[in-house]
Amino acid sequence: MAAARPSLGRVLPGSSILFLCDMQEKFRHKIAYFPQIVSVAARMLRVARLLEVPVMLTEQYPQGLGPTVPELGAEGLQPLSKTCFSMVPALRRELDSRPQLQSVLLCGIEAQACILNTTLDLLDRGLQVHVVVDACSSRSQVDRLVALARMRQSGAFLSTSEGLILQLVGDAANPQFKEIQKLIKEPAPDSGLLGLFQGQNPLLH
């Protein structure tokens, strides 16, 4: 298998991992578009399982912020507890054990906090980061917009869930394509992105 060229941001199942960040009960009524974000992240998780892409799940201070919401469908995953505003310290051992890893697909909250800092830490390790924009949000849409722009400036790729899913599948002849096609038959739910990207937005140019 040819190695993905970092400058292109190609995503291959054998060299990718899915990170699910802090989608917990106490955030349910505070994060903009929380149900939609979790729905898209759940779609990414189902695809990762079908394609045997490894998945890592974290929870920020679960004693105070509660467990991962059940609608994510993360049964069988062991969440790693953290207090740091980055997933990387909690997952360092997992990252170190995967020398073939090239790409991290990143979903969760909050964009300006744990998602941004996780992105910077992963980039610092020489990994490609693909921020799933329709599976990341914040309490403030300004924070969300500026965080997406900041991550892009630093070298992360901004992608939609469907774009990444189809990259991972690669070919309609993939044995899992029919099952995955059922998952993406309906478009991902609206999470307010059009309002962030429309017009001449200088932050995303």
UniProtKB/TrEMBL annotation:
SUPFAM superfamilies assigned to the protein according to its UniProt record, in alphabetical order: Isochorismatase-like hydrolases
Domain of life of the source: Eukaryota
Coiled coil: none
CDD domains found in the cross-reference section: YcaC_related
Residue intervals of the Isochorismatase-like domain: 16-162
Complex formation: Interacts with CDKN2A.
Family listed: Belongs to the isochorismatase family.
Designated name of the protein: Isochorismatase domain-containing protein 2, mitochondrial
